[in-house]
Specification:
Number of strands: 2
Strand order of the largest sheet: 1-2
Shape: globular
Oligomer: single chain
Largest sheet: 2 strands, antiparallel
Number of helices: 16
Structural class: mainly alpha
Order of helices and strands: HHHHHHHHHHHHHHEHHE
Mean pLDDT: 90
């Protein structure tokens, strides 16, 4: 019974944190009614998760959009601040941000609860998970540097279309007359992503999101996250087989540190790291 209560608490706590993060990122509520983007001092600060700068409710900047903007101006200055911020987020949390602090990740999980046939992870989805690294290199780095344009934000980002493009078009009548092919393309990408997330767990996160790709590079060294007690682990692989992400092992680049494996493990061998606390046998 105690294990059941603990498992329920883990899931509830994560959902609560996801909801609070989404609200805090977008607490400029009057912006949705006025169609005006908040441009106060907080916009100089990056949110950890993917959240469009141009969302009428957004009070923080998107780290991915900020990186593209900085790189598009790299001919004039090097983006020390934004790169430093992303490295700090990565070293501290890694993909824990994807599991707990990303509003679009939260939305994907809600979409997946819709009762439709589901695509389970397989060899193809594991191969497809590398696509987000290609998108990171091409659309977040190469296009901004060469074409001086935010490639991912401009051509792909469904979060920006949902959070900013559609609300702004609805709120501002003048923008409706400016709708062209690019906006229609972005709406199409959003529709495909929504459909994919309904039938495939966190499809955008797993296959497309370059921010997740960037944070995954820090998974081996992140300060906070999931770890396995090898002394307790029996090697049953219940954690891997039950995980909806394309993980090969707990805590690898595809692990979003959601903690679902903590509930599954029959050996009680998986837990969140507590920095500064070591097992007794390691003390001298």
């Amino acid at each position: 019974m105690m294990n059941g209560l603990r498992d329920h608490f883990i899931s509830f706590k994560r959902r609560y944190i996801q909801l609070v993060a989404a609200v805090l990122y977008n607490c400029h509520l009057t912006g949705f009614a006025s169609g005006k983007i908040y441009r106060g001092e907080l916009k100089s600060v990056c949110a950890p998760g993917l959240n469009c700068y141009s969302c009428p409710g957004a009070v923080l900047s998107c780290p991915l959009g900020s990186l593209q903007g900085a790189l598009s101006k790299s001919a004039y200055s090097f983006p020390f601040y934004i790169l430093g911020t992303l490295i700090l987020f990565g070293i501290l949390f890694g993909r824990l941000i994807c599991g707990f602090l990303c509003p679009f990740g939260f939305l994907q999980e809600l979409l997946h609860k819709i009762p439709l046939p589901k695509i389970k992870k397989n060899k193809f989805t594991r191969m497809l998970s590398y696509l987000k690294y290609v998108i990171l290199i091409v659309f977040v780095i190469i296009i901004p540097v060469i074409k001086l344009a935010p490639g991912f934000c401009k051509y792909i980002c469904p979060a920006g279309t949902l959070e900013a493009g559609i609300p702004l078009v609805i709120a501002d009548e003048k923008l409706r007359g400016m709708i062209g092919f690019l906006f229609s393309w972005k709406v199409f990408v959003l529709a495909v992503c929504i459909l994919m997330c309904m039938i495939c767990y966190r499809a955008f996160c797993r296959f497309i999101c370059p921010l997740g790709a960037l944070y995954s590079l820090f998974s081996p060294v992140a300060f906070f996250g999931i770890e396995v007690d090898k002394d307790k682990c029996s090697g049953c692989n219940a954690c891997i087989s039950s995980c909806a992400m394309d993980v090969v092992r707990v805590g690898d680049r595809e692990c979003i540190q959601c903690g679902e494996c903590v509930k599954i493990c029959p050996d009680d061998a998986i837990h969140y790291r507590r920095p500064g606390i070591k097992k007794d046998k390691d003390k001298t």
